[in-house]
Amino acid sequence: MMPTKILLPEDELPTRWYNVLHDLPTPPPPVLHPGTGQPIGPDDLAPLFPMELILQEVSQEQYVDIPGEVLDVYRLWRPSPLYRAHRLEKALDTPARIYYKYEGVSPAGSHKPNTAVPQAYYNAKSGVRKLTTETGAGQWGTALAFACAQFGLDCEVWQVRASYDQKPYRRTMMQVFGATVHPSPSELTAAGRKILAETPDSTGSLGIAISEAVEAAVQDPEVHYALGSVLNHVLLHQTVIGEEALIQLAMVGETPDLIVGCTGGGSNFGGLAFPFLREKWAGRMSPVLRAVEPAACPSLTQGTYAYDFGDTIGLTPLMKMHTLGHDFVPDPIHAGGLRYHGMSPLISHLYETGEIEAVAKPQSECFAAGVQFARTEGIVPAPEPTHALAAAVEEALHCKESGEEKVILTALCGHGHLDLAAYNAYLSNTIIDRNWEDADIQSAVAAALTRLPALS
Amino acid sequence: MMPTKILLPEDELPTRWYNVLHDLPTPPPPVLHPGTGQPIGPDDLAPLFPMELILQEVSQEQYVDIPGEVLDVYRLWRPSPLYRAHRLEKALDTPARIYYKYEGVSPAGSHKPNTAVPQAYYNAKSGVRKLTTETGAGQWGTALAFACAQFGLDCEVWQVRASYDQKPYRRTMMQVFGATVHPSPSELTAAGRKILAETPDSTGSLGIAISEAVEAAVQDPEVHYALGSVLNHVLLHQTVIGEEALIQLAMVGETPDLIVGCTGGGSNFGGLAFPFLREKWAGRMSPVLRAVEPAACPSLTQGTYAYDFGDTIGLTPLMKMHTLGHDFVPDPIHAGGLRYHGMSPLISHLYETGEIEAVAKPQSECFAAGVQFARTEGIVPAPEPTHALAAAVEEALHCKESGEEKVILTALCGHGHLDLAAYNAYLSNTIIDRNWEDADIQSAVAAALTRLPALS
């Protein structure tokens, strides 16, 4: 029988990240300075990021070597396992062969440390003493706390107040890894004090938390800021996932017909998909690449492709991306990592040019797939990757009807050990689905975009 | 550099469990019927367990073949990884080489599924429809819920009321795997109704929950009961851990000088240690085997070696073991899996005959080791295995002083993703240590043993 786990030996851990910018059939639109309307340059980003990350953000080289110190930390959990979902296939009675690349083996329990570790490394190397960041439910904050511990950096996290109070366990995990965690809004920044003066009982938002973390970073040259998705260098770091999966599938003689991954900011999907896109463009395979987003936050399938801010209150450069408007507030769905108004410019460009597909799924369908997966494969998935699982199950059931033996590769980007309250809501039938009408979304996006600065 | 992860290929998964009874230098004392004082026979256990498990309980064969259906489920996570703790060693500045065998990769997040899966398999094969069990914090209940889902069995769990109310996430995880979970005491059994009549707001105990699960099992021939530690067949199933670790250490040319594991009922420690004891008795290595127990529940280091009940209210046969008295109530330490008044008869016999050592550790020292481990190795350990980590760190620091390059093998039996409230207590300095005076323990044990039935 074909093995259940396809394990890549540690000495075959990829030593380069793949830069999809090198191979794009058409170049993506530039990132613009909101004041000048002109493309931003490295100096604009220097108060926030070290120069090596800024250069990676705009690099046209096909590959970037992974530093040895980063590989040493990656080896704590990488190469991550690729699984054949024998028991799920049997339960579905499908001729499809389902594989899942599992990133839940990492210290934070998701794919986030793949970029947190190099971000911490390059910052430490440049003499930075501390990193600041924001976090919602806490996945990204946990990853950065762990990464900072590896390179002797302090780590300061602003966690959205509602999560800070209601989900204390992610906060504790950040503290176990040595981070200092503040509820946001806080009295520690001007942005936080302003919000608290207006709304003393504010439960916060990711936008406010970003403002606080950025403000704390720019005031001290020894302090930088780190972001967990959306940007080119973040997606670059995540390609280690797809490079491993390529080798692992080849080890069992398989070529994928369909690759599915969930998309919030886009780093999980991009990390798995980009190396397969390279193989597709080289004519070595022809997989369909399908991004799966929540129906409650459908940036690719219902958003507008336009320049918009990356944050809610307008501190960032303007990026051309699929957006629901920078002040869009998604429903409080349980897949907190997918509640983002925009989509990575790289993923947006690939979608706009027809290289990838996208579908939206309601969360009840996703949790149903998650429970079936747990009962067959033994892993309770995070709410985010249940979106990919729902799409994989859907395709496998199509195969059952058609008799096609498709090879489906799924990004299982994290476990759900800290998301059991969400499963409890699903099992108690208190999950609420929200499907947007196209017209409602489009008028909201149009209104948000009128509030942008005029571009020259 | 030596690899961080020593991965055993899936086709080298052990196909036999090792039965330490075959090789014991002296046989252990028999288990006695509390009514007759005579050794119990298979028929005494038939209302609770299928005959194949009863025969494994008393088998003298050196090896028991693992059924193919059990191996198929084991392959979801087995062989489990063996890690070299490079980054912990560096932080300790020790010449010792520290390895940890990690069982947190299993569906329940601990070593418990190693026995839950074969127990569910043999029961399903014997025509049983449902398994009942008790659980405290929920590790064992989760493992059995998962195992029952694999073989189409119903699973009914009585969870101690205090845990049921205060730690809802383990309950949810059992429900995700398909189990029905009741708070104990419940109105569903005579035992539960009796307790509730006397104490309507009872928060329950493991002893009461055992009574309810056993009562529900014996009333229906299609329902059996399952136990997660202590018994010979449970320790037999766990030897798959040690058999894998033996091969993995040999792959990197290492022989252990010290093996440390935490002990509650004894199945984690026995599972790792027994195959190494076989090698020791065969003259192929000479490791020290050290059990580590909580100072708040020191059955090996301060208990009495005597016949006692396995449960609190006296339903089980009498087992000769190290005991704190069947009505001993340990402090509510965070390592719930180590809060048991007795010790597996096999482990007790090996301790009494000088084959293994034991030490007791206060929980604050254990959490300190757990936090250091998380910050270096990236895995947040469950409170139980932090006891083994504390002993490993202690030995590694001795090696730093002496310059000895000892090889230390540690049983890391589970992750702490559902134990973060315990870490929060530690980081908030609200952990309480309890060290028993020998005299206090011994008078308590003596009093408990006077309440036993007279043995002929």
UniProtKB/TrEMBL annotation, chains A, B:
Entry EC no(s): 4.2.1.20
Single annotated GO MF: tryptophan synthase activity
Metabolic or biological pathway: Amino-acid biosynthesis; L-tryptophan biosynthesis; L-tryptophan from chorismate: step 5/5
Pfam families: PALP
Role of this protein: The beta subunit is responsible for the synthesis of L-tryptophan from indole and L-serine.
Family: Belongs to the TrpB family.
Protein name (database record): Tryptophan synthase beta chain
Annotated organism of origin: Kribbella aluminosa
Gene that encodes it: trpB
